Amino acid sequence: TEPVAIAAVDLGATSGRVMLARVTPTSIELEQVARFPNGPVRTPDGLHWNVLGLYEHVLAGLREAARRAPVRSIGIDSWAVDYALLREGRMLGEPFHYRDDRTAAGVETVHAIVPADELYRANGLQHLPFNTVFQLAAERLDDVDAALLVPDLLAYWLTGRQVAERTNASTTGLLDPATGTWNAGLLARLGLPSRILPPLVDPGETIGALLPHVADELGSNAHVIAVGSHDTASAVVAVPATSPDFAYISCGTWGLVGVELDAPVLTDAGRAANFTNEGGVDGTVRYLHNVMGLWLLTESVREWERDGSVVDLPVLLAEAAVYDGPVALFDANDPGFLAPGSMATRIAEHCRDRGLPLPDSRAGWARSIVESLAAAFADAVRTASELSGRRVDTIHLVGGGSQNELLCRLTAERSGLPVVAGPVEATAIGNVLVQARALGVIEGGLEALRSVVAASVQTRRFEP
Ligand code: ADP
Ligand code: LRH
Fold this sequence. Notes:
The chain is of the alpha/beta class.
């Protein structure tokens, strides 16, 4: 059969891309049409995302996609939790970046009304200081009539329709994990106005046609279809698993490590281990822990490059792989690594304060970061399995980090489990597959979608 053209907009915290996919009932082929850097921008009031800049790149990418193929539909995903505030359709300032430190005040405000254990029972989320609920608690909302998560904001700009896609909405801390609907009781207790939260839609639902001026600019009559708009939800759809006993590591800026379940686990042990229940595609639950991820490495590289030198990541990783000096095995999850700036210095101080061995080269520090991440990954896989009772016989490592052979090898060694690496663009693939199913190109549940991925992409296996 003739392949169907589908576009995926995938905005990661490190880079964004527009991908053009050609899909048949049994295969998917991906072509990158645009890629652009992304990251925090500091202005005097704090850290922000340049969403207008991102939107401009998205439009250019979609225009190019439509030039190359008759795109039937568009799906948008991005990092979670962050949002724009709107009044009468107008965005009130650039969204804050989740690494902005204003959220500390919001955490205090929320916990003073709803203690942490009660909040966990109400929303099922691990404590991350930037969960939307804490961010909103630090905002003035009197004049606001809508809060739109980033993918929903872009969908609104494309279609004129304001919705909240459910997987990403689950990261706000304002959804009831039992019903998957906005938690009205929690909102009322926190004094958060429910009017600002738009109606929920599920992945696969059509959000709308392009606004006339957008259709004109893009040269396209595609529709926007809701996907797992939380990037991690889309990434997990595209895990090329061939058996159910897998753990996943969605590895880019963050390392999201866990298992897929049918129902949330809301135990005290899970809360103590900081495990979260995020909403997945087809009503699944992602039971996972946020590991700090390759942010530790990219942010260190950014510091090293401040003297004008250029660090080539594959070269650095190749040196790290053969490095045989002292290695610092540190706690990659230390909250002190959340904020941007001087990462290499902060890691070195962290290690010195704890009497850890100190490498004497950049390759040694890169090795230490990757070893520490692999240890945190292995630990999180073990804990996910213990807490959920889910057997794990394979780890699927997907996302940009799957290109990091050293990381894959060390994760296999430290976990004692085989690591299957790839696809790199899992998120975009998961985004496309949900659209393809909505269009009737592919049929079936997640297992069927995953078998299309397994048949279409190259993976690499690392034995323990
Ligand atoms: P995000 O979606 O969060 O922006 P990605 O999934 O695109 O992140 O992954 C980005 C990460 O992939 C980078 O931080 C980098 O560490 C890693 N990466 C990219 N290219 C390579 C490469 N050639 N070799 C090893 N790692 C790479
Ligand atoms: C990864 C991610 C992750 C969230 C974080 C804010 O990009 O969406 O799942 O916890 O960003």
